[in-house]
């Protein structure tokens, strides 16, 4: 009887420890946000997004930013600038007529290099990315980890 | 006649002020380190925006806080949620002047020292700062580098006791922008 209790105790203890170790392991290896597998919370045009931040930045922050990350959104618009820096990082500017000098600045995911080669200024694109907020200095709304889709 | 003259003068002034050369980058690199005996932590943003006006030395830098990437996603969450309150204060900004701008010859390749004065805003708290850095002019490109330290406490960022030996009380910030 006593022996059985001890064995059960050992089993429970080992189990609990295993759960704890796995939990720690999970926390330490929590994956980063993967835009590709996330569902876009909002689908809108570049000028709609831009105008929301331009007219009321605080409420746009509330709508598009979460505590630990930006919300994933799907955007349409045309490419006004393609920048590739020395490290191979790609940044696209998305602009529409009604946005005046403002634009959406999209930092692309490194998986998108091949698609960018076929891209030209003026192309209409669908772009999915994490919203980071508005930058006054250059009058832009920032997205990162962006993924490109051809216009259907 | 007088009106035409004034109108022309205004036009001329507006043209000359527009012609003032601005150097801009949208993909500047800003990163920070925390060194302690227990662990080293670093995070990088490649979406730092910077504007430099060589004629008067005005320098502005802005970075979306959510663009900082940590190796450990949980640390990144903690940084955004507990320390920076990124949803509430989504960006940090520096507005200032390169005070010794006249010492920098943007037409001649070379490495120049830069003394920068201005206001640094982090976590919605603004502090005046003096920062030293270097400006490298090479083939028409301008690279601005700087390394300085900030104390999170100065910006109302409270690090809980249980993390006080994991996170340095002074954080090293690095700026590397090519304009």
Radius of gyration of CA atoms of chain B, rounded to a whole number: 20 Å
N→C terminal distance of chain A: 71 Å
Summed over residues and divided by their number, the pLDDT of chain B gives a mean of 90
Oligomer: heterodimer
- Give a quick account of the main beta sheet of chain B: strands, pairing sense, barrel closure: 8 strands, antiparallel, barrel
Low-confidence stretches of chain B: 15-19
Number of helices of chain B: 2
Hey, roughly how much beta strand do the residues of chain A contain? 25-35%
Please give the most extensive interface between any two protein chains, plus how many residues each contributes: A-B, 34 and 28 residues
Number of strands of chain B: 9
Shape of chain A: elongated
Order of helices and strands of chain B: HEEEEHEEEEE
Helix proportion range of chain B: 10-25%
Cross-sheet strand order for the largest sheet of chain B? 1-2-3-5-6-7-8-9
């Amino acid at each position: 009887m006593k022996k059985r209790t001890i064995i059960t105790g050992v089993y429970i203890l080992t189990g609990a420890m295993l759960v704890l170790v796995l939990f720690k392991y999970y926390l330490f290896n929590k994956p980063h946000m993967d835009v590709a597998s996330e569902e876009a919370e909002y689908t809108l045009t570049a000028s709609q997004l831009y105008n929301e931040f331009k007219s009321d930045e605080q409420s746009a922050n509330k709508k598009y930013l979460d505590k630990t990350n930006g919300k994933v959104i799907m955007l349409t618009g045309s490419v006004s600038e393609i920048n590739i820096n020395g490290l191979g990082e790609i940044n696209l500017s998305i602009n529409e007529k009604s946005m005046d000098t403002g634009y959406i600045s999209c930092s692309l995911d490194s998986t998108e290099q091949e698609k960018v080669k076929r891209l030209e200024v003026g192309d209409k694109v669908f772009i999915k990315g994490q919203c980071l907020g508005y930058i006054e200095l250059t009058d832009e709304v920032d997205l990162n980890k962006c993924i490109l889709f051809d216009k259907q | 006649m007088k009106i035409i003259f004034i109108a022309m003068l205004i036009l001329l002034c507006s043209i000359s002020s527009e012609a003032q050369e601005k150097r801009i980058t949208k993909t500047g690199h800003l990163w920070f380190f925390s060194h302690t005996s227990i662990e080293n932590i670093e995070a990088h943003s490649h979406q730092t925006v910077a504007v430099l006006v060589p004629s008067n030395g005005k320098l502005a830098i802005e970075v979306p806080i959510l663009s900082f990437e940590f190796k450990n996603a949980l640390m990144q969450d903690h940084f955004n949620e507990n320390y920076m309150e990124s949803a509430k204060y989504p960006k940090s900004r520096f507005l200032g002047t390169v005070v010794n701008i006249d010492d920098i010859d943007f037409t001649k390749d070379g490495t120049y020292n830069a003394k920068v004065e201005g206001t640094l805003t982090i976590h919605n708290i603004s502090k005046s700062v003096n920062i030293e850095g270097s400006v490298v002019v090479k083939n028409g490109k301008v690279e601005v580098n700087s390394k300085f330290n900030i104390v999170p406490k100065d910006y109302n960022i409270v690090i809980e006791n249980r993390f006080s030996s994991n996170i340095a009380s002074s954080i090293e910030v690095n700026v590397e922008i090519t304009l």
